[in-house]
Amino acid sequence: MGWALHLHLVAAIAWIGGAFFMFMLGVSLRKKEDQDAVYPRIGPIYGYFEVAALVILLTTGSLMIASNGLLDILFSNLTNEVIDALRKKLYIVAVIVVLTVIHMTISLKTLHTVKTPLQRLLSKGSSMGIFLLNLIVLHYAMVLRDIL
Q1: Helices and strands in the chain, H and E counts
Q2: Span 34-60, pLDDT tens digits
Q3: Taking the complete model, does pTM exceed 0.85, yes or no?
Protein backbone atom coordinates (compact mmCIF):
# COMPACT_ATOMS: atom_id res chain seq x y z
CA MET A 1 0.00 0.00 0.00
CA GLY A 2 2.96 2.33 -0.50
CA TRP A 3 1.15 4.17 -3.29
CA ALA A 4 -1.70 5.02 -0.88
CA LEU A 5 0.73 6.57 1.59
CA HIS A 6 2.40 8.64 -1.12
CA LEU A 7 -0.93 9.81 -2.51
CA HIS A 8 -2.10 10.56 1.04
CA LEU A 9 0.97 12.71 1.66
CA VAL A 10 0.56 14.64 -1.60
CA ALA A 11 -3.12 15.27 -0.83
CA ALA A 12 -2.21 16.36 2.71
CA ILE A 13 0.29 18.84 1.31
CA ALA A 14 -2.37 20.20 -1.04
CA TRP A 15 -5.03 20.33 1.68
CA ILE A 16 -2.94 21.94 4.42
CA GLY A 17 -0.92 24.11 2.03
CA GLY A 18 -4.09 25.39 0.38
CA ALA A 19 -5.67 26.16 3.75
CA PHE A 20 -2.52 27.99 4.84
CA PHE A 21 -2.48 30.00 1.59
CA MET A 22 -6.14 31.00 1.96
CA PHE A 23 -5.58 31.89 5.61
CA MET A 24 -2.65 34.14 4.69
CA LEU A 25 -4.68 35.66 1.86
CA GLY A 26 -7.51 36.42 4.27
CA VAL A 27 -5.15 38.02 6.75
CA SER A 28 -3.40 40.13 4.11
CA LEU A 29 -6.54 41.37 2.32
CA ARG A 30 -7.87 43.89 4.81
CA LYS A 31 -10.05 45.95 2.48
CA LYS A 32 -13.51 44.60 1.67
CA GLU A 33 -13.06 45.67 -1.97
CA ASP A 34 -9.91 43.56 -2.26
CA GLN A 35 -11.66 40.55 -0.73
CA ASP A 36 -14.64 41.04 -3.07
CA ALA A 37 -12.27 41.14 -6.04
CA VAL A 38 -10.28 38.04 -5.09
CA TYR A 39 -12.53 35.54 -3.29
CA PRO A 40 -15.26 35.14 -5.94
CA ARG A 41 -12.56 34.25 -8.48
CA ILE A 42 -10.25 32.14 -6.36
CA GLY A 43 -12.83 30.65 -3.96
CA PRO A 44 -14.59 28.21 -6.29
CA ILE A 45 -11.34 26.97 -7.84
CA TYR A 46 -9.82 26.55 -4.40
CA GLY A 47 -12.96 24.87 -3.07
CA TYR A 48 -13.11 22.20 -5.77
CA PHE A 49 -9.36 21.60 -5.51
CA GLU A 50 -9.60 21.20 -1.75
CA VAL A 51 -12.64 18.90 -1.94
CA ALA A 52 -10.68 16.66 -4.33
CA ALA A 53 -7.74 16.66 -1.89
CA LEU A 54 -10.07 15.82 1.01
CA VAL A 55 -11.68 12.95 -0.90
CA ILE A 56 -8.22 11.57 -1.70
CA LEU A 57 -7.20 11.92 1.97
CA LEU A 58 -10.32 10.15 3.21
CA THR A 59 -10.04 7.40 0.61
CA THR A 60 -6.33 6.68 1.05
CA GLY A 61 -6.59 6.97 4.83
CA SER A 62 -9.44 4.46 4.88
CA LEU A 63 -7.52 2.11 2.58
CA MET A 64 -4.43 2.26 4.78
CA ILE A 65 -6.48 1.61 7.92
CA ALA A 66 -8.25 -1.35 6.30
CA SER A 67 -5.14 -2.84 4.68
CA ASN A 68 -3.22 -2.71 7.95
CA GLY A 69 -5.99 -4.48 9.87
CA LEU A 70 -6.70 -1.48 12.08
CA LEU A 71 -10.43 -1.16 11.50
CA ASP A 72 -11.47 -3.71 14.13
CA ILE A 73 -8.83 -2.46 16.54
CA LEU A 74 -10.06 1.15 16.26
CA PHE A 75 -13.52 0.08 17.43
CA SER A 76 -12.26 -2.20 20.21
CA ASN A 77 -11.35 -1.39 23.80
CA LEU A 78 -7.67 -1.84 23.04
CA THR A 79 -5.54 1.16 23.86
CA ASN A 80 -1.94 1.88 23.13
CA GLU A 81 0.03 4.89 21.95
CA VAL A 82 -0.54 4.24 18.23
CA ILE A 83 -4.24 3.44 18.43
CA ASP A 84 -4.95 6.35 20.77
CA ALA A 85 -3.15 8.82 18.49
CA LEU A 86 -4.92 7.43 15.42
CA ARG A 87 -8.31 7.67 17.13
CA LYS A 88 -7.67 11.30 18.12
CA LYS A 89 -6.57 12.10 14.58
CA LEU A 90 -9.70 10.48 13.13
CA TYR A 91 -12.02 12.31 15.55
CA ILE A 92 -10.49 15.61 14.49
CA VAL A 93 -10.75 14.63 10.81
CA ALA A 94 -14.46 13.97 11.35
CA VAL A 95 -14.90 17.47 12.77
CA ILE A 96 -12.93 18.92 9.84
CA VAL A 97 -15.24 17.13 7.39
CA VAL A 98 -18.31 18.62 9.12
CA LEU A 99 -16.75 22.10 9.14
CA THR A 100 -15.84 21.71 5.46
CA VAL A 101 -19.43 20.82 4.57
CA ILE A 102 -20.69 23.86 6.50
CA HIS A 103 -18.13 26.16 4.89
CA MET A 104 -18.64 24.87 1.35
CA THR A 105 -22.43 25.02 1.64
CA ILE A 106 -22.39 28.64 2.77
CA SER A 107 -19.70 29.60 0.24
CA LEU A 108 -21.56 28.09 -2.70
CA LYS A 109 -24.93 29.52 -1.64
CA THR A 110 -23.52 33.03 -1.20
CA LEU A 111 -20.93 33.16 -3.98
CA HIS A 112 -22.45 36.19 -5.72
CA THR A 113 -24.52 37.55 -2.85
CA VAL A 114 -23.86 39.28 0.44
CA LYS A 115 -23.63 36.94 3.40
CA THR A 116 -25.89 37.49 6.38
CA PRO A 117 -24.11 38.08 9.70
CA LEU A 118 -24.83 34.47 10.71
CA GLN A 119 -23.53 33.11 7.40
CA ARG A 120 -20.40 35.26 7.73
CA LEU A 121 -19.84 34.03 11.29
CA LEU A 122 -20.33 30.38 10.33
CA SER A 123 -18.19 30.73 7.20
CA LYS A 124 -15.28 32.44 8.91
CA GLY A 125 -15.61 30.30 12.03
CA SER A 126 -15.63 27.05 10.08
CA SER A 127 -12.70 28.23 7.97
CA MET A 128 -10.67 29.13 11.06
CA GLY A 129 -11.65 25.83 12.69
CA ILE A 130 -10.51 23.87 9.65
CA PHE A 131 -7.21 25.74 9.59
CA LEU A 132 -6.45 25.20 13.29
CA LEU A 133 -7.62 21.59 13.35
CA ASN A 134 -5.44 20.87 10.30
CA LEU A 135 -2.43 21.77 12.42
CA ILE A 136 -3.55 19.36 15.13
CA VAL A 137 -4.10 16.57 12.57
CA LEU A 138 -0.62 17.29 11.23
CA HIS A 139 0.72 16.97 14.78
CA TYR A 140 -0.91 13.55 15.23
CA ALA A 141 0.40 12.45 11.83
CA MET A 142 3.91 13.33 13.01
CA VAL A 143 3.32 11.55 16.34
CA LEU A 144 2.24 8.42 14.48
CA ARG A 145 5.21 8.64 12.14
CA ASP A 146 7.61 8.99 15.08
CA ILE A 147 6.10 5.98 16.82
CA LEU A 148 6.10 3.79 13.72
Answers
A1: 5, 0
A2: 887 888 888 889 888 999 999 999 999
A3: yes
Buried-exposed string 45-61: b where 16+ CB fall within 10 A, e elsewhere: ebbeebeebbebbeebb
How far is residue 79's CA from residue 55's CA, in Å, rounded to a whole number? 28
With a cut of 50, which residues of the chain have pLDDT below it?
none
Of 134, 133, 109, 132, the closest CA to residue 120 belongs to 109
- Phi (first) and psi of residue 75, to 5 degrees: -100, 10
Contact indicator for 23, 69 with CB cutoff of 8 Å: no
* pLDDT of the residue at 8: 95
